[in-house]
Design a protein that fits this description.
The chain is about 50% helix and about 0% strand. It has four helices and no strands. It is globular, with a radius of gyration of 10 Å.
Length: about 60
């Protein structure tokens, strides 16, 4: 599932998710749109906030 799908499945707004992960809404939005990707060390926190295993998250580049 994409990062956006994972967030929506967790029933979180971008604002709520960004706050819990510890990044700005701008950063989270760019991750979701594939503009750039989170650092590997952030994956555990993202998975924890979204309540899914990190290997279930698929990152797709912009336009893919």
């Amino acid at each position: 599932m994409t990062l956006k799908q994972a967030r929506q499945t967790a029933d979180l707004t971008q604002e709520d998710a960004a706050k819990k992960i510890g990044v700005s809404v701008y950063t989270l939005s760019n991750w979701e749109r594939g503009k750039f990707f989170p650092k590997v060390i952030m994956l555990d926190k993202i998975a924890e906030v979204y309540g899914i295993p990190k290997d279930m998250i698929v990152f797709v580049g912009e336009g893919e």
